[in-house]
Design a protein that fits this description.
5 strands; about 375 residues; alpha+beta; 3 domains; Heat Shock Protein 90; elongated; 11 helices
């Protein structure tokens, strides 16, 4: 009986929210009429995207209410309304999500009054005689009816608010467009970094090396000792140039990944991070288990950037890294016990991490409340 009452109470919360939403929508009709008239008159066309954004917020509230009741999240799929007024109008008219929301809105005006039945039913179920045990038999019919009403409201709303395949495809195309733009920007920045490293470092050393060898050849007949010193200097310059080249190559694809694999490379990163770092590896230490090179490289650089951020900005002396092999992905979790408050807008490298992972269709989540800890979780799709 207690379970029935608890379910009915939760159902009443959903139906009460639906009733309040229905009341608000009755007032919202005025906004819809003004927007329609202003849009037809052209001069007020700018109101249409703003009204659609309001409808999105209202539909989002309903999605959250239904998701809390059913335990299933209803996804959103909207085209961003940005740019000039003309661009926003075009996006509004072409967005399949707008059609979905308007269809739900129309149906909401028809069936939402059912939510008002929850209040009298709840009162009838609990106040018949004021005694929980004595009212049990009476409640056995009334309270489940409240739950069924909530289930009915949730099913209708879920079916109406779930994005169409066309809307999901449009959002996916937009995500891929942004991911491609971010990948191109990251690739361009990487090429410029390599170009600067080669021009300012390696090339300068090789030019100096060539000059020393030329001078040594000229001096060899008259002053062999001076020529020997020049050749020694040339040898030092050659060693420095090789070191520069190794750093540049390491920035493209770390050789340690080829030699030790992802797990070994990350352990080497942890050892040289300057922090007391523990590394846990699950499923990636098995012989013959290797992710694609692009996935290993992206994971390696994410861990390297996260540990660098922790050493520079977190104020923590320790960090934890966990690598996991999932059925269709590789997951990396980097945690530090610092003061938190990581902000992507302050140039802490998080934006670069997101771009690198997004280029491979992966995901990154960052949790960094004030006071810490900071936890960065990355997942990259991977076919084993």
């Amino acid at each position: 009986m207690r379970k029935t009452i608890r379910q009915a109470a939760q159902a009443t919360v959903l139906l009460a929210g639906a009733a309040a939403l229905a009341f608000g929508l009755e007032l919202f009709i005025t906004v819809l009429l003004i927007t329609a008239i202003a849009t037809l008159a052209v001069v007020g066309a700018w109101m249409l995207p703003e009204t659609v954004l309001l409808i999105r917020r209202i539909a989002g509230l309903k999605r959250r209410l239904v998701g809390e009741w059913t335990g299933r999240e209803i996804p959103e799929a909207y085209t961003p309304l940005t740019g000039t007024v003309r661009e926003r109008l075009r996006a509004t008219v072409r967005d399949p999500g707008t059609v979905t929301d308007l269809r739900w809105l129309g149906a909401q005006y028809l069936y939402s009054p059912l939510a008002l039945l929850a209040v009298p039913l709840w009162v009838l179920g609990l106040v018949v005689d004021g005694v929980w045990c004595g009212a049990a038999r009476r409640n056995a019919v009334v309270l489940p009816l409240i739950t069924r009403l909530a289930d009915l409201d949730a099913r209708w709303s879920e079916s109406l608010l779930r994005p169409s395949p066309k809307a999901l495809l449009a959002v996916r195309v937009e995500e891929l467009t942004q991911t491609r733009a971010g990948a191109i920007a990251a690739h361009g920045a990487e090429l410029r970094r390599i170009e600067r490293a080669l021009h300012d470092g390696t090339q300068a050393r090789l030019v100096s090396l060539s000059l020393r060898v030329g001078l040594a050849k000229q001096a060899y007949g008259d002053d062999p000792e001076a020529a020997r010193r020049m050749l020694d200097d040339a040898q030092d310059l050659a060693d420095e140039a090789l070191t520069e080249l190794r750093h540049v190559v390491r920035g493209i694809h770390p050789p340690i990944l080829t030699d030790r694999g992802l797990a070994g490379a990350v352990r080497a990163l942890a050892a040289g991070s300057g922090l007391e770092t523990t590394v846990e590896v699950y499923g990636l230490d098995d012989p013959g288990v290797r992710a694609p090179a692009a996935v290993e490289a992206a994971t390696y650089f994410v861990v390297a950037e996260a540990l660098t951020n922790a050493a520079k900005h977190s104020g923590s002396s320790r960090a934890d890294v966990r690598l996991e092999r999932l059925r269709t992905a590789v997951r990396a979790v980097i945690r530090d016990e610092g003061h938190g408050g990581a902000d992507e807008d302050r140039g802490t490298g998080l934006l670069g991490i997101r771009r690198r992972v997004a280029a491979l269709d992966g995901t990154v989540t960052v949790s960094s409340p004030a006071g810490g800890p900071t936890v960065i979780t990355m997942e990259l799709p991977c076919v084993w």
